[in-house]
C-alpha cells in the first residue's frame, strides 16, 4: 500500500497550468526524488503536498486518508512534514531552544511560552536527541543566526523531525551549500532513509542519483518519466528535457 498517493493533481495560476494532472505514489520508507528544469512546477507541487496552496483538481491521499482539503497543521498531525516550513527559525535563539520550540508547537502550544520550553526537560531532552541525529550535537548552544548555511539547514531538518513525521517533504535542501556541506547533507538523508519516507526536490544530480529509490521527472507540470535512478539516467527523453550540455553531462555522468 502506498503511503502517499497523488491522483491527477492540477494547479492553475491564471492561464498557466503549474501542475498538470500530476500522479505520484510513494511507498513507506521510500525516498522519491522529483527533478526537472527550472519552471517545471516542482516547488508548486511541494506546496500542494504540504498544504500551503490548494489544488484546483485532483486528490491527495496520505496514510489511507484523503488530505486534499486539510490545512498545513492538520497534515502535520497526520505525520506529513515539510522541512523548512514546520515553523520559523528564531535567529536569536540557540539551536536547542529552536528545536525545543518545535516540539512545543507540535504539541499544540503557543510560542509565547518559549521560556518554559527552554527549561522543560520533556522538551529539551528530545530536542538534544534530534540535534545529535542531524549532526549538531556540538552546536546546540549556538544561536541560529551564528550557524553556517549548512548547519542552518540541518537545524531546519531537526525542527521538521520533531514531529516524528512518516513523510518528509524536502525542497532543495542542498541549495546554496558548498560541496562539503552538500555531501554532509546527502549522508544525513541517506542515514534517515527507511526511518522516514521522503519526497525530495533537488537540483544536485549527484545527491539525487545517490539517494533516490525512484525518480519522477517533471516538465511543464507533467510527469514525463518515473523509474529507478539508472532508468532515468539512460532515458533520452529525460535528457532532452534539460537545456544545456552541462546539465546533460550531469545526467549521463559524461565529461567534456
In a nutshell, what does this entry contain?
The chain has helices at 42-50, 72-78, 95-106, 114-118, 121-133, 149-161, 179-192, 205-211, 229-233, 236-241, 245-252, and strands at 4-13, 16-26, 31-35, 57-62, 65-66, 80-82, 167-171, 197-201, 214-219, 222-227. By secondary structure, it is α/β, with parallel strands linked by helices. It has two domains: 1-86 and 164-256, Rossmann fold; 88-162, no CATH class.
Provide keyphrases for this structure.
256 residues; alpha/beta; Rossmann fold; 2 domains; four-stranded antiparallel β-sheet; 39% helix; globular
Q: How much helix, percentage-wise, in residues?
A: 25-40%
Residue runs with pLDDT of under 50 for 5 or more positions? none
Global morphology: globular
Distance between the termini: 44 Å
Annotation, overall tally of beta strands = 10
Please trace the helix and strand order, writing H or E for each element.
EEEHEEHEHHHHEHEHEEHHH
Average predicted confidence as pLDDT: 88
Quickly give the CATH architecture of the largest domain: 3-Layer(aba) Sandwich
In the CATH hierarchy, the third-tier topology of the largest domain is known as Rossmann fold
Q: How many separate helices?
A: 11
Gyration radius, in Å: 19 Å
Please report which band the strand proportion falls in: under 5%, 5-15%, 15-25%, 25-35%, 35-45% or over 45%.
15-25%
CATH domain class of the largest domain: Alpha Beta
Total separate domains: 2
- CATH homology superfamily name of the largest domain: P-loop containing nucleotide triphosphate hydrolases
**Structural class by sheet pairing and helices:** alpha/beta
| Biggest sheet, spatial arrangement of strands | 6-7-8-3-9-10
